[in-house]
Structure formats: structure tokens, C-alpha cells
Amino acid sequence: MSRSFTVNCPDVDSGQTLLVGLAAPGMASLTAVSHIVDSVESTEIGHISPAELPAITPFEDGIPRHHTRLYDLDNTDIVVLLSELFVPPFAARPFVEQVTEWAADADISDITMFHPVPYEHAPEDHQVFFVATESYREQRLNGDLQPMNGGMLDGVPGEFLSNSLTETAPPTGVYVTPAHPPGPDVDAALLFLDALESVYDFSVDQTSLENLSQEIKTHYETLGERMAELEAAEQSRDDREFYADRMYM
Prior knowledge:
Layout (H helix, E strand, L loop, with lengths): L4 E4 L8 E6 L5 H12 L2 E9 L8 E2 L2 E2 L3 E6 L4 E6 L5 H17 L4 E8 L11 E4 L1 H6 L6 E2 L7 H11 L6 E7 L7 H14 L7 H40 L3
Parallel strand pairs: 2-7, 2-8, 8-11, 9-10
Antiparallel strand pairs: 1-3, 3-6, 4-5, 6-7, 9-11
Helix pairs in contact: 1-5, 2-4, 5-6
């Protein structure tokens, strides 16, 4: 049987964590893992290619790159799976099957996935929640994160968790936070980084993301003020026209 996805990656050191960040609404997970790869000394060690799923070819400064890449973070026990390609629900199972098959061969210790979800939420819900198998909770979680109350996860995170429940995948934890499409939701990305630092012996300089967050907030505040000024000017014009129309009643 032909494979829908192929993992092209040599052997890695055993016992490492696989950190997964995919393209998703709000782009918070992709923003977070991209920042990690850009900020920490890392080496691209492989990529994943789909046999049938329509692919994309990202590029920067005229240089193309694989859409789904694997990085080894120097001086850490973390391997990053970063995908700029959206994996639709119908392709989630074959994608996860190939990743977990590679993870088993590579003796990956556990899998952590960032998963932003656009849902209605109160300000106090601006935090990271977890959905994790018992083995992951025992191995990694120390009480800093709160469990998600209830619901369902489908697509890639659902497949990772389902495989972990049957022990065909390593212990798996999915970190969930509300996201604001279309993105990039930098604040949600910062929450993911904080959660990662609270669970793992790992830290990354967040200054550039924090500055970007402030720039985005300033932009939208300025835009909101401008829109309010335009609405006020439009209302004033309508009032003047209404007054002028009454002159002829």
C-alpha cells in the first residue's frame, strides 16, 4: 500500500521530545515553533512530503523550502516538527501514522503539540489548557497548566492522542489556547512559549515576539480610532443632510 506521507529524516538521539506546531486558524502554533527555531541554535534534519495532498512551496528572499520540516534544537532534548501546510481532517490519520512510525523508530520520549482553537472565550480563558494521556501527565505535567474541562479534539491532535491511548504513539500532550483568526495571534503564541517553559527545562528569548505583539496592538488601536473618526464624520454629514432636507418640507 502506498503511503500518503513520507518522513525523510535520518536517525536522531533517542529519548527526545517531539514538539509539533502546524498551520492552523490564528497561526499561533506555527508562530510559536517558528520563533523557537529562529531564536535557538537549530539544525534542519529532515522534512515530510505528501504523496497525494496538494502541496505548497514557501520561500523567502527567492529561496524555496520544504513546507513541513524537522529541526533538532542544539543543547536541548527537543525536536521540532514545523508545518506551514494545513493538514485537513481527512489527511490527519495517514499524517499522524507516518509521524508516529518515525517517532517509534527514533525512540521519541513524548509528543507535545500546540493547538490553537478559535472559540468563544472570556478574558480569564486567555491561558493554555492541556489534554494529555495519563502517561504524559505523569511524565511531564507538574500542576502549572490547567486541564481542559471537556469536549472533543479531531484532526491531527485527536489522532495523536488516540494513538497514544493505544500506546502506538509515545505519551502525548496537546496544549490548547483560544486563538483569534486570521492571525498571526502573537499573544497566543507567547502563551504557548510560556507553557513550554513551565513544563520543560527550556527557555527562549521572547523579546521580538513581545515587540511584534505591541506593534499589532498599536496598529489596531490606531485603526479603531480612525474608523471611529470616519463614523463620526459620516454621522455628522448625515445630520446636516437631514437638516437640509427639512428646509423643503
